[in-house]
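Most newcomers find our protein records easier to grasp once they have seen one. A learned vocabulary of local backbone shapes supplies the integers on the structure line. An example says more than a description, so a record of this kind follows:
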Amino acid sequence: MIELEGLTKRFGAKTAVDHLSFQVRPGVVTGFLGPNGAGKSTTMRMMLDLDNPTSGTVRIDGKHYRELPEPLKYIGALLDAKAMNGGRSAYNNLLCLAQSNRIPERRVSEVLDLVGLTPVAKKKSKGFSLGMGQRLGIASALLGDPQILMFDEPVNGLDPEGILWIRNLMKGLAAEGRTIFVSSHLMSEMAVTADHLIVIGRGKLLADLSMADFIQQNSRSYVRLRSPQQERLKDVLHEAGINAVGVPATGALEIDGVGPERLGELAAQHQIVLHELSPQRASLEEAFMRMTADSVEYHAHAPGAPGTSPGFPPGAAPGGPGGPVPAPAWGAGYEATRKGGE
């Protein structure tokens, strides 16, 4: 188990992590989410004593990381796959880690085989592709056969087969009762991998709950109905006290707060043909965007959008008398500028 209590990290005037307290429990895959700049990487570095907290504590199975005599046997981590020595072979990179933690040499061959790198075990890691380097980093995390595993963007650079492999690996390890803590920006991957979510924004804890509860609490759920007898269906719903909103783009009706069972029964009672009766729920990405909307630190703007040029504040009306000049269209004047500089 990983336990954080009041964890805080300041860099000068900036607070990167702000009094974080949560637990990462065994037996489930816990996803660690947050916008860019939320403090996820800093938090994970403090878990491994790579950064010292300004205040607060982190404990790995009741101990600080620095108190673990052979840390790879307690917690395996992949924070940066490029941290390996490029001049060493994959085998020797892992052998150095094994020897420093009194791990039997046979384990090196086992994890190389597990991650699919046996054919390139003797090759220098500096020649590895991004995906191969990622597999080597995962092998280093698995080397000590630890009960706790921590991954930062584990699918980065992996092909579809590799993504499916690491997803099933994490689920399998969690099923064995291990503690799995994984950070990723790929919401589609988190949605099919994580059982529990820790969400932070601007260094503060925003959510600590199951995947299902997170989506339910941060998204709209409704039922979509389509019928060739749409007007009659509207009348039946109105008589039953059910509010239905038409969506011209799809020709469907959307109903909040009423289950699909009751809607189906109403249609059947009045012999109304339905072409669609489907419960709709937002994706993890939509729920995440809704929750973290006020915590995003870095906002991108479309090229040429109002407010993207100096002296043109967001929301200001362009082109008014005495007002700021609107930003030129993206790429405008490029040819003239290029020829003038030749």
In short: Residues 160-175 form the longest helix (16 residues). The radius of gyration is 26 Å. The first strand starts at residue 2 and ends at 11. The CA atoms of residues 318 and 326 lie 5 Å apart.
